[in-house]
Write a structure and sequence with these properties.
mainly alpha
Length: 162
């Protein structure tokens, strides 16, 4: 026998086996224990399907919440989402129901996470950022010699030369 003949014989044998018709007593008493050719039961498939739907809902909620948090000026939307993902409520169609309430709760619970970024501190603690008091001839005239000795001599020469 050739390989094709063997395949046709197996296919014919499968097609010739009696099938149960829905609504008959035989069909109603049998249970779906496994998909043909697999070891996965109907209950396992249903559980996996539900798990995938939950993952899709959570991913959609993640995009929605982190987007709204970013628009609200959040510094770390990913961390804030992780803080509230257990409090999310979904409608029957999979849409997020309490997005506004969750964001409001985050704003009240973590106000430091919203708003403008503070300016980073300078490495030199702001040296040169503040206006240096200008030295004038009048100010030099009022100073004692000990105070003048503590001044920057280049600055004193510049003032006296002007």
């Amino acid at each position: 026998m050739t390989k094709q003949t063997i395949m046709k014989t197996k296919t014919n044998q499968l097609n010739e086996t009696p099938k149960s018709v829905p609504g008959t007593a035989e069909a109603e008493t049998s249970t779906l224990s496994a998909a043909p050719g697999t070891d996965i039961s109907h209950a396992e498939l249903a559980a996996e399907n539900e798990q995938l739907r939950a993952t899709i809902r959570l991913n959609a909620a993640h995009r929605q919440i982190t987007g709204e948090l970013a628009r609200a000026g959040s510094r770390s939307p990913e961390l804030l989402f992780d803080a509230v993902k257990d409090a999310l409520q979904f409608a029957a169609d999979g849409t997020l129901q309490n997005a506004a309430a969750v964001i409001g709760k985050l704003k009240t619970s973590f106000p430091e996470q919203f708003g403008a970024e503070p300016l980073p501190a300078s490495i030199d603690a702001g040296a040169g950022a503040a206006a240096v008091p200008t030295l004038t001839k009048e100010a030099l005239a009022k100073m004692k010699p000990a105070e003048i000795a503590e001044l920057d001599w280049a600055e004193v020469r510049r003032v006296l030369a002007s």
